[in-house]
Amino acid sequence: MRSGETFYRMRLSPAQKQTRALVQAAAAVCEDKKGLNTRILALDPADSGLSDFFLVTSATNERQAVTIADEIELRLKRDFGVYPHSVEGRRHGEWILLDYVDFVVHVFLAERRAFYDIERLRKSARPLTPAEFDAELKAELAEKTRAVRTKAAVKKRPASVKPAAKAKKPAKRAATAKKPAKKAASRRKAAAAKKKVARPSAKKAKRSR
Question: What is the pTM of this model?
Answer without folding.
Answer: 0.64
